[in-house]
Design a protein that fits this description.
The protein has 370 residues and is of the alpha+beta class. The chain has 2 domains: 260 residues, no CATH class; 79 residues, no CATH class. Helix content is 61%, strand content 16%. It has 12 helices and 5 strands. Strands 1-2-3-4-5 form a 5-stranded antiparallel sheet. A hairpin with a 7-residue loop joins strand 2 and strand 3. Helix 1 runs parallel beside helix 5 and helix 8 packs antiparallel against helix 10.
Amino acid sequence: MRLLHRYLAKEILLPFAAGLLFLTQVLLATQLLAQADVLFGSGVSLVDVGAVIVYLLPYFLGYVLPIAFLLGAVLGVGRLAEDREVVALGAAGFSPAFLVPVPLALGVAVAGVGLWLSLEAVPASLDAARVRLNEIVKHNVMNDVRPGTFYDQIPGYTLYAERVHGGLWENVLISDRSDPSAPVLALARGGRLEPLGAGEEMRLVLDDGEVHREQVDSDEYVLATFRRAGVVLGLGTALSDRNAVSRTGREGVAELRARAAEARAKGDVISARRAEGTLHRRIASALAVIPFALLAVPLGASRRAGRAFGVGATFLVVVGHYLLLRAGEVMAQRGALPPALALELPTLVLSALALALIAIQVHRGTGAVR
């Protein structure tokens, strides 16, 4: 029987690996196209693009692992049913339910990997991706300033350079409107932008120039000359609008629990539920593999089993899981159920459905697929 179990495991792992590779490639390609204006900008190298892909891989793997596993498990068992091997197993006196431990054992292992990805790897990798994309955006900004063209992509500032050579500017004009009550005009013979840390700031460095400042509500006018001046610019929306990862949750388990505890201490129950819901959603997404593993044999060993049926069944189960997950999130936010229970609603419902289908197969006995 061990030989049969190893045989089924091989039949499951091959389509699982193929599905995992295909779905991950699709998601990565979609993300790269969505960030094309950043990742294929003037200040980007192949190393930068490769680093972003590596950092985003755990995030996408967390999404596709359950789906790819369900597809692989249903197709693996379905292949046995399609070739009448499940019928031969029944003729030998074994119900299709005899196959359940194989996808279940594999599912538990995949769920463990998914939990590690969701709770540990993904927050760290998204934070690294955010920092790298921030650097890419900054280098793009440094290279986007064109000679003889006004550049106004930095909120509150307009930059103009008569000549640009390798990121160095000549005969520069800077209009600073970050403080509307005291606009500033700077003129300099040279200037440049420099990255500053991993946040949203850059340093504007000007050489040999003068600053004109006027108070809008008074007649005061200030003129000052300088040999070198440096100003820290906050890119703000110019950076966050381009960096989609900056809008993606990067908090780890400890941060989410601390945020929930702090919100409850302040009496902000809604924010506390939202933080707890985020944490338990990550756990629920990884544990989705368990009911998917239990459903593999009832769906794959069906009389209608086949590759087309396997793909269709996978789609329906994934949609059902998503709808139950959304319903659980709503109940958690409204306080109808504790977040830990509400977000595990898909796992509990689909597991109960799978166990019921397995029980039916056991009751029907060795003739379950005849």
